[in-house]
Amino acid sequence: MQRQPLEPLLAQLEREQRRRSRRTVEGYARAGSHAELIIAGRRLVDFSSNDYLGLAGHPGPAAAMAQCAARTGAGSGASHLISGHGAEHDALEEALAAYTGRERALLFSTGYMANLGVMSALGGPGERVLLDRLSHASLIDGAKLSGARLRRFAHADVAAAERLLGTIGHPTAVLATDGVFSMDGDVAPLAALAQAARAHEAWFVVDDAHGLGVLGPTGRGALEAAGLSAEEVPVLVGTLGKAFGSFGAFVAGSAALIDLLVQKARPYVYTTALPQPVAAATRAALELAQREPWRRERALELTARFRAAAAAAGVPLSDSSTPIQPIPLGSAHAALEAQRAVADAGFWVVAIRAPTVPAGQERLRVTLTAAHTEAQVDALAETLGRACRFAGTACGAASP
Ligand SMILES: *Cc1c(COP(=O)(O)O)cnc(C)c1O
Asked: 275 and 259 in one domain?
C-alpha cells in the first residue's frame, strides 16, 4: 500500500460494516469478579470473554502477582536466553508440563507468538503445512512465516486432510488444528487427525486455547476428552489468558521438541521474557483450576442451561457443547443490530464479523463462564429471543 490518505479506506470499511472499534472497560461492578463490566457508565453482564473459569478477576492470582512483583519487580529486563529467564518461569513450566502430562513445557509471551514459533520451527521451504480452514489466525500466520506451502482443508473434514496428506510433491511437515474452534465452539476430530498425521509422518499440532481447563474428565482439555496421549499429539499449544484468566501461552511436548523451539522459534528468541509476576499469577490460577473443579462443571452446566433456554426462546444455535455458543445471524448488519439490542438490555455480547469469520457467517459469540448466575443466563436467552423476533427473518434464515 503506497502512502495515501487513509480516511477513504476507513470510510470504505465503515460502509461495509467492517470497521472495528474498541470499548473501554471503565471498571468492574464488583471487586474480585469480571462478570459485570462498566462500559460508558453502564453495568453490563459480560457474555463475551474467554474467562471460562471466572479466574481473570479472582483475588488469588492477583495476590500472587503482587507478592512476586515485590521480589522481582515488574519487568524481566531481557529475553529468556539473555538474563530474563527466572525461577518463576521455571516453576510455571514445570507445573504446565505436569498438568499436560508431557516431558517439558516452554512459555511464550502470547498464544499468537507460540503458534508463530511452533509452525516456523517445524515447517520450512519445500515442505507443506496443512490447516483446518477455520484455524486461528496465528496458525495461519505461523505457516506463512515458516516459508512452507500452506494448504487448508475443509472444516473438520478428515478425508480432505487425508487427501492432502496423500498428495505427492512436497512432504507435509505439520498438520495443525484448533482443539476447540474459537469462533464456533465445536471440537476438532482429533483422534482421526492424529492417526492421519502419524500415518504420513507429519507433526500433529493441536492449539487447545479454548479446551484447556474446561474439557475432559479433569479439565485437561480436548485431548483428554478424546483420550489422546502425548505420543499421539506430540505438540500441544495452550494459552494462559483464557480459562486460566492470566496472560501468556506455552508449548508442551518432548524435551527435544522444547529444546528445538529454544534454538529455532524466533518469537521465543527475539523478544523480552514474560514478566515473572505474570507467571506467578498463572501458577496460582492453575492451582485454583485444579483445586476447584466446580468452576469447570459450572461453566458447562450453564452452557447446557443457556442452550435449552435459548432454544425455547427461538434463538438459532450452532452445534457446540462448549462454553462458546455462536448465534448465527448471517450478516454484519444483523449481528451489529443484535449486539446493540442485547447491550440495551444490559448484556455485553460482541458481533463477530468478517474477516474473523467468513462473510455471510457473521454472528454473536456468546460465552458462558463459572462467574455467571442462572438468572443472568436465563435473562440473556430471553433477550436474544426477543432480539431475534425483532430482527424477523435475519435470525431464523441464518442457519450455519
Ligand atoms: C486466543 C487464541 C490464540 C492466541 O492466544 P493469545 O495468548 O491471546 O495471543 C491462539 N489460538 C487460539 C485458538 C486462540 O483462540
From this structure: yes
* Phi/psi of residue 162, nearest 5 degrees: -65, -40
Question: How close is the Cα of 209 to the center of ligand 1, in Å?
Answer: 6
Look up residue 275 and give its three cell numbers. Answer: 514478566
pTM of the model: 0.96
Residue 30 CB-half CA count within 13 A: 11
178 lines ligand 1 (CB under 6 A): yes
Query: In which domain, by residue range, is 31 found?
Result: 22-51+293-396
Mutate to test the pocket of ligand 1, among 119, 135, 182 (most ligand atoms within 8 A of CB): 182
Residue 3 lies in a domain: no
Within this chain, do residues 209 and 335 fall inside the same structural domain, yes or no?
Answer: no
Q: Is the CB of 278 under 6 A from ligand 1?
A: no
- Among 48-62, 164-178, 181-195, 260-274, which is the least confidently predicted range? 164-178
In a domain, 309, yes or no: yes
Assess whether 271 and 297 both reside in one domain.
no
User: 153, 184, 158: which is closest to 319 by C-alpha?
Assistant: 184
pLDDT tens digit sequence for 339-398: 999 999 999 999 999 999 999 999 999 999 999 999 999 999 999 999 887 665 456 444
CA 247 to ligand 1 centroid distance, Å:
10
